[in-house]
Amino acid sequence: MPICRSSIRHLAVLASLGSLVALSGCQSSDGAASAAAQPAEVNVEELRAYCPQVILETDGTVWSQYERGGDGDAAKLVHRTTISETTRACSYSADAITVNVAVAGRIVPGPVGGPGQVSVPLVVEARRGGEVIYSNPVNYGVQVTDTAGATQFVFNDPAVPIPQAGAQQTRIFVRIDVPEAR
Asked: Is residue 113 part of a domain?
């Protein structure tokens, strides 16, 4: 009697379901272990809550530092710093949102660059319309050890305060505070 392909598929599906049922019986009955594996519950208010967008300012994503008097001369480039990615997480209280902002970047040494500490002038700002409601300028130290490749870094500003009133009109901006642009 020939076996048709649909019968083989049906048998395969039934075998898969049977093994899943058998494996489900092998789970631990330890309530503490299964409770610890459960993710934290998220309530409806948190799902509907607003978390301000983080934007990289176009004019502040690249900073090329040259030897004194060598501006624009590729042979005198000490290093090039870029920021390219951001992320955020929000926590909520009755009157404020606290935003944990992270920024990823990298430093690429130039022909005259060497190992050592690089101070990256970063600024995190929260703006509502044209008003700056939070500003955190930081000289973030990055240790460059590899002069043949890029050194990656992550900067974190863990507590950007945003008042709930007007939060929907608030944006968070991140930039390298390029000395020439000041």
From this structure: yes
Task: Enter the pTM of the model.
Answer: 0.72
The rounded distance, in Å, linking the Cα atoms of 125 and 177 is 11
Task: Round the CA-based radius of gyration of the chain to a whole number and report it.
Answer: 26
Q: What is the widest separation between alpha-carbon atoms in the chain?
A: 89
Q: Domain of 166?
A: 47-181
Tell me the per-residue pLDDT of 106-148, one tens digit each, with 9 for 90 and over.
Answer: 999 999 999 999 999 999 999 998 999 999 999 999 999 988 8
Start-to-end Cα distance in the chain: 85
Q: In whole angstroms, give the CA distance from residue 80 to residue 118.
A: 11
Say if 171 falls within a structural domain: yes
Residue 67 belongs to domain with CATH number: 2.60.40
